[in-house]
Amino acid sequence: MTCALAVSPFQVVSSRKNATATQSSKEPPISPASLHATTIATAADFFTPSQLQQLHARLIKSGLPPSSSASALPLPRVAAVCALSSPSAFSYARRLFGLSDAASETVLWNSHLNTLSSSPSPADALALFSRLRFAGVASDVFTLSFVLKACSRTPSALPLGRAVHALVEKLGFRSDVFLLNTLVHMYASRGDISAARLLFDVIPAKDVVTWNIMITHYTKTGEMEIARHLFDLMPERSVRSWTAMIAGYGQWKKPREAVRLFREMESAGVQPNEVTVVAVLAACADLGELDLGKRVHEFAKRCSFQKNNVRVCNTLIDMYINCGCVEKARQVFDEMAERTVVSWSAMIGGHAMHGQGEEALKLFSRMREAGMEPNGVTFVGLLHACSHMGLLEEGKRFFSSMTEDYGIVPEIEHYGCMVDLLSRAGFLEEAREFIREMPVKANSVVWGALLGGAKVHKNINMGEEAIRHLVELDPLNDGYYVVLSNIYADAGRWEDVAKVRRMMKDRGLKKTPGWSTISLDDEVVHEFVAGESDHPRIEEVYRGWDELLEKLRCRGYVPDTSAVLLDMDEKEKEKVLYRHSEKLAVVFGLMNTRAGRPIRIMKNLRVCSDCHAALKLISEVTDREIVVRDRNRFHCFKHGSCSCRDYW
């Protein structure tokens, strides 16, 4: 930016001496106090060096000496306007600082460096620092800390960060722990974790911030063992220390460790903050830990986190949905004072997962009425809702609407939903044609959806085509081989079943055993594995199942042995069915919870047809609500029926 005035404002008084004298004889002199007040009142009106010079000229013209006129200007504003302008404007600002009674020019520039380092363009702070160094302006601890902060936020600034590190040593600031912490953060942020660790190790008097910086960066890169080692070595920990570890465990798919550490945090008497609450709720969602999730929710309400933090509310919605409490999730959603597209999308997806497709579609209508624009995640939820309900035409309309009405380019998840929708509905040929016409290469999720449809509709040819692609894309996923084996078994093609099993053996693959978990009031997770007996109370559970089985038979239960795709006699097949993990977990829940209380189960595989039929009857015989979260969706069994309406 160039200055508009050709004449320096320092010369305005002499060049207009006569005019000033005439004006002074007609008007009373302006007091410095009133002039200063006027200047401050109009300070927001200058945004360029030219406007600044005009204001300064007016001050000098009023009769004030140069030093007083400079002092009357808002100097931080002067720094902000002139910092990155033309060299002449920068020099002009420095002359003003010299005329004023400001304690330190460095302090004035530091104020603006701080602002720039936190701005969307932190590189501007680096440009200003270079100009200050060239002009010989002294740097102090704060100058360097603001510059290092800007370096940590600028991708290409590692070389400059190293130069600033050298300057820290040269200026004798190596004992300032605040500055050293900023250096560690800069190195780690720019990916030089080895330099960060080297500096961390030689800092003699580390404070809690030093430890937190290093731990946080290790958790971000997934080096959780190193992070935990440092965490255990800390002489004292802050809430940020605990939160960094809990969030790291959650981020890297170790929710059990996250929950375990949160309980240690409680025992240590450390009160969680909002970030801790979000992290532990996310872990509860992954594990289906409803009781702990509820307890954290109560804490969030007491601390007004739910009332004031949209992110906390969104995580609560996700937690309740993934723990099988869609009604509670909807209550949190309805009580929110402010909602984002994440809130709407999470709730729409939650209704879809729980077999409440109509509610998902109604909520989308409300979302549009509220003026909220949907995003890609919203449409994933809508397409899931249509798929779980068999709403083929509605699903096709939503898929078209994405691009035509909202300009959203479909991603692989949307294509996968469409293949799932078509395959479930029995339109396997159309699903295959849809895959061929996709503008992106189909991944294992897309071909897996076609394979699932082939199993449901017993289409061997389509299953074989899907598996050919899946073996190329994901050769070590045992689930695909098992599904193909099941398709062959359904057709009685036992030689092909044996062939698939030999193929799995040759590739070192074993069928993943089915397991189910249930969490009781003590927040202890109990796990049951199909056909195994490791649980300490398994014999008691077996006896409980035998008693329950008699009641089910009186209600007409007949084991669906077609769900056992093994070449064995019917009695042996029945025994296999009776040891399925979800049945054992439900019996354990019936034995250890109060009458009338819902039972919530998590299962790693798809619920089989026999367990589905049995759980419907169990819900009727025991008058219990049984919620099962399997690999694909939720099943809510109540009064002898399931929320999926037997379409899964």
From TrEMBL:
PPR repeats lie at residues 207-237, 238-272, 309-339, 340-374, 375-410. GO terms for biological process: RNA modification. GO terms for molecular function: RNA binding; zinc ion binding. The keyword Repeat applies. Residues 556-648 form the DYW domain. InterPro entries: DYW_dom, E_motif, PPR_At4g14850-like_plant, PPR_rpt, TPR-like_helical_dom_sf. Keywords: Repeat. PROSITE patterns: PPR. Belongs to the PPR family. PCMP-H subfamily. This is (wild Malaysian banana) hypothetical protein. The lineage of its organism: Eukaryota, Viridiplantae, Streptophyta, Embryophyta, Tracheophyta.
